[in-house]
Specification:
Blueprint lengths: L1 H12 L12 H9 L2 H7 L7 E2 H8 L3 H13 L3 E6 L2 E6 L2 H5 L9 H18 L28 H6 L4 E5 L1 H8 L9 E6 H9 L4 E3 L1 H13 L3 E4 L7 E5 L5 H7 L12 E5 L9 H5 L5 E3 L5 E3 L9 H5 L5 E5 L12 H11 L4
Antiparallel strand pairs: 1-3, 2-3, 4-5, 4-6, 5-8, 7-8, 9-12, 10-11
Helix pairs in contact: 1-2, 1-3, 2-7, 7-12
Length: 353
């Protein structure tokens, strides 16, 4: 039984998101809570491309009719992707993060939360080694100014209003912190899922379908609560996460780094007009990366090594003393066209091909 979970762990580690081993073996404890031995063995036969049952059955060396019920159950539990098109079922491997974990939002237990929180620093440390991250940061709308060299895929409103279907789902990070008695009190309905992903979430009873206007209202409410907008790292994103630095496993671990700006894929940074700054500290209080501090004269200053260009500081400054500027050309980030391209780029950086 142990061997099949080790095999699955290695299989997941060979995905773009990774699943690195630990000395404590906590990653195996997580898998045992999510997968039965039979499901773990079957997951090892899947790849990150949709395939028909017959192909998977051949790889698993089992009859197709025998594995179909297992695959459908795993799809319903969010352990793999089950895609049905034109009366044809296909199944695809999910990476652990972003992927399997986020789909467990309605299946959390205190033990699973405990083990995940032990494991996530190891996972994030491995992911931070890559230039291409799974999420990128875009500025909140209120912080965008006419001087910025900003593309359509960096405008939140454009990203939202170009979607054919939008679903809002609970944030698994804030839900797990609430279950652990560590809630920050910020809104839980904060994950926007688009297109095909929205249909998959809907089929599992996760979240609810909303309009583009409702999605923009959620984004505005999130900005007022100090939430960072993080779309999937592609021109055509599959989702936008509204993240806090206290509960979000990605942001909170990035915050521990000495130079978050080197990790986050973002094209902007905050600057201060010292003549306009009154030292009210509103920008300092809302900054999720502790990038803003006060100098000896009580004037705000921005540590560019820590600023991730989210623009939240701009939204709370009543004196227009802080604003966003473009990063230098050599530091600018051009996201891949699609999420598949993003995963391929990360896989190449990991040396998987």
């Amino acid at each position: 039984m142990e061997n099949v979970y080790k095999k699955l762990a290695r299989h997941l580690d060979n995905t773009p998101g990774g699943f690195p081993p630990t000395k404590s073996g906590v990653e195996l404890r997580i898998l045992k809570q999510l997968f039965t031995p039979e499901q773990a063995g079957l997951a090892c036969c899947l790849v990150m491309m949709p395939e028909p049952v017959e192909t998977i059955a051949q790889r698993a060396e089992k009859p197709a009719e025998e594995i179909v019920p297992f695959l459908k159950e795993m799809g319903q539990k969010g352990l793999i992707l089950h895609i049905r098109r034109n009366d044809t079922d296909t199944f695809m491997l999910l990476q652990f993060v972003v992927g399997i974990w986020e789909h467990q939002v309605n299946r959390l237990t205190k033990q699973l939360i405990k083990d995940f929180n032990e494991y996530v620093p190891h996972l994030m440390k491995a992911q931070e080694k890559h230039k291409t991250q799974q999420l990128r940061v875009v500025p909140v709308e209120k912080s965008v100014n006419t001087q910025l060299h900003i593309m359509d895929h960096e405008h939140l409103e454009n990203l939202v209003k170009s979607q054919s279907k939008i679903l809002v789902a609970p944030c698994i990070c804030r839900r797990e912190h609430t279950m652990a008695g560590k809630t920050c009190g910020k809104m839980e309905e904060a994950c926007l899922i688009f297109g095909g992903g929205a249909y998959i979430y809907e089929s599992r009873g996760i979240g609810r379908t909303i309009t583009a206007d409702e999605a923009m209202e959620i984004i505005r409410k999130g900005a007022a609560q100090g939430l960072v907008a993080q779309p999937s790292n592609s021109v055509k994103p599959m989702n936008i996460c509204l993240c806090c630095d206290c509960c979000c496993q990605i942001l909170s671990n990035i915050k521990k780094n000495q130079a978050p700006a080197r990790i986050v894929n973002s094209n902007f940074q905050a600057c201060v007009d010292t003549d306009q700054c009154t030292g009210c500290r509103a920008c300092e209080e809302i900054c999720p990366m502790d990038a803003v501090t006060m100098d000896q004269a009580g004037i705000a200053q921005v540590n560019q090594q820590r600023c991730i260009g989210c623009g939240l500081c701009v939204t709370v400054c009543e004196f227009e003393a802080i604003f966003l500027t473009d990063k230098k050309d050599l530091e600018r980030w051009e996201p891949p066209q699609t999420l598949v391209d993003t995963y391929m780029k990360i896989a190449k950086e990991k040396g998987l091909f």
